[in-house]
Amino acid sequence: xxxxxxxxxxxxxxxxxxxxxxxxxxxxxxxxxxxxxxxxxxxxxxxxxxxxxxxxxxxxxxxxxxxxxxxxxxxxxxxxxxxxxxxxxxxxxxxxxxxxxxxxxxxxxxxxxxxxxxxxxxxxxxxxxxxxxxxxxxxxxxxxxxxxxxxxxxxxxxxxxxxxxxxxxxxxxxxxxxxxxxxxxxxxxxxx
Length: 192
What we know:
Elements: H1 3-8, H2 13-21, H3 23-29, H4 38-48, H5 64-83, H6 95-103, H7 115-118, H8 120-123, H9 126-145, H10 150-159, H11 163-191
Helix pairs in contact: 4-5, 10-11
């Protein structure tokens, strides 16, 4: 297998897991920083839309590294899709999951984005638009209420043995299991 082919194949957990795990010591070594994405939205608002709110009055420039991290994640995602994915590559999902999707009328699409769920035309429907807006508000509120996002708590918080992060991660996981197994199937039944 060539290096190019190896890069196009999904990377195994025993490679990606340690790479993600190395983020915490790297950030701690370069300046006692913690990993998190949701705080970058606050930094963006403080930079562009301060609107005179006390919450946005702080020295956001000290957190510019976090904005560079988020930009790197976006650019890296784009490069992975457009540079490390063979054209015409179909989603690789288990046969059981493919059957479950088919039961809802969803054909697993290219790059894990079924057109039935992720097409612009689908977003224009009232149920999808409502679910997107309400879901986005709930995620944003939850991340601020929990004082961090899933990435920050699960990667930095657990690595630094913070009890509040353990509680947050257990809550995220429970919410994810309920949503994936109860809420999403219920919604998909109604969106048919």
